[in-house]
Design brief:
With 371 residues, the chain is mainly alpha-helical. It has four domains: 107 residues, no CATH class; 65 residues, no CATH class; 59 residues, Orthogonal Bundle (Muramoyl-pentapeptide Carboxypeptidase, domain 1), CATH 1.10.101; 53 residues. It has 20 helices and no strands. The protein is globular. It comes from Ancylobacter dichloromethanicus. This is Peptidoglycan binding-like domain-containing protein. InterPro entries: Lysozyme-like_dom_sf, Peptidoglycan-bd-like, PGBD-like_sf, PGBDSf. Pfam families: PG_binding_1.
């Protein structure tokens, strides 16, 4: 396997000099146990995305209004920046970071440990994986001089710290770039870019020999094995070997298309929930719908509450929760009022579930007594 710095030089001839120097410290990679081809490829793919191709060691806030809305807008970030705010914040780094990471966003500031005015900007994303917040910088001993995170001595320290603390080596062994992205990014921003970088990096790790497909050298995942078993129950002809390869991806795409989901081949939360719901209502052997005898008397439905399936209810509650989280980021009375109305909607859904499923299970309906 080629050395990390050799691969970096091939990928990014204009990489930040401090990062090149840090990649030359192979002992640090050994300490963090980033020593296998899969681990190194996954590690570098995340860094490539976070640093704009290994070139930027500090988060830039020189965003357009459109980009601010995409990253920090309502429904995308706890800051819930409105379009009008985005227009005012465009190009103003200090004010933007105070608004989204600092005292302008109390919940995020508390999470990051940003206590004082100016912390949002001072402790913005820095280093190879853009460590963010006073807490992260303090853990690295850089809270008194945060700009040191851009130096060769420190720029990889935060990345190694986060990588090992969050168990990313294990996820890399499973070749699970989606789970790694969630650990590194907190969401899935730039997911396609991370995948593209991985696909560029992986062949370089084979010392000129033909690179086997990465999924073939990954460790089997019990989570993937369960997923494959579920797909087999639904009639998809794949092996339950725990390896997320082309056959599994193809089965997921086919299932997503058949169920009106985004056909990306990724077994995300909505896809796995839908798979479970389909299994609950189908026969494992044939995939045909299983119809049970209806109760003698249908349970009453409260006025204004529709009868829904558990899967539909779960999705509706998840949708409502997302809205509540969005409104919770607003600091004015309108936000709290809207969040309150949304919470009422969740309550109505829960009542519907109780009336439709729970109460009939506890007190089964009895057939009417003939007169």
């Amino acid at each position: 396997m080629q050395s990390p710095v050799s691969i970096l030089r091939q990928l990014a001839p204009k990489a930040a000099p401090a990062l090149v120097a840090a990649f030359g410290r192979t002992f640090d990679f050994q300490v963090a146990d980033v020593t296998t081809p899969l681990r190194l490829a996954q590690f570098m793919a995340q860094i490539a995305c976070e640093t704009q191709g290994f070139t930027k060691l500090r988060e830039s806030g020189k965003y357009s209004a459109k980009r601010i809305s995409e990253v920090f807008g309502v429904g995308r970030h706890s800051a819930a920046v409105t379009p009008a705010e985005a227009a005012r914040l465009a190009g103003d780094e200090r004010t933007l970071f105070e608004r989204v990471y600092g005292i302008g966003n109390p919940s995020k500031a508390k999470e990051l440990g940003n206590l004082y005015s100016g912390d949002g900007y001072a402790y913005r994303g820095g280093g190879a994986m853009h460590s963010t917040g006073r807490n992260a910088y303090t853990r690295l001993g850089l809270d008194e001089n945060p700009d040191l995170i851009e130096t060769a001595e420190h720029c990889l320290r935060g990345a190694f710290d986060h990588w090992t603390r969050t168990g990313c080596n294990r996820l890399a062994d499973l070749n699970d770039i989606r789970a790694i992205t969630k650990k590194v990014n907190g969401g899935y921003n730039g997911y396609d870019d991370r995948v593209a970088w991985f696909n560029r990096i992986w062949p370089l790790l084979r010392d000129g020999s033909a690179a086997p497909e990465s999924w073939k050298v990954a460790q089997a995942s019990e989570t993937t094995r369960v997923l494959q078993t579920q797909l087999r129950q639904l009639g998809y002809d794949i092996k339950a070997d725990g390896l997320y390869g082309p056959a599994t991806t193809g089965a997921i795409v086919a299932f997503q298309k058949a169920n009106g989901l985004k056909a990306d081949g990724i077994a995300g939360d909505l896809t796995t929930t839908t798979i479970a719901a389909r299994i609950a209502g189908t026969s494992p052997a044939t995939g045909t719908v299983t119809v049970s005898d209806p109760p003698a008397i249908a349970p009453p439905v409260a006025a204004g509450v529709s009868t829904i399936t558990l899967a539909e209810a779960g999705q509706q509650i998840a949708d409502k929760a997302d809205v509540v989280n969005t409104y919770a980021g607003l600091s004015d009375a309108v936000g709290y009022f809207a969040a309150g109305l949304t919470a009422i909607g969740v309550t109505v859904i829960v009542i519907g579930i109780a009336r439709t499923y729970i109460i009939p299970a506890i007190w089964p309906a009895r057939a009417p007594v003939p007169e």
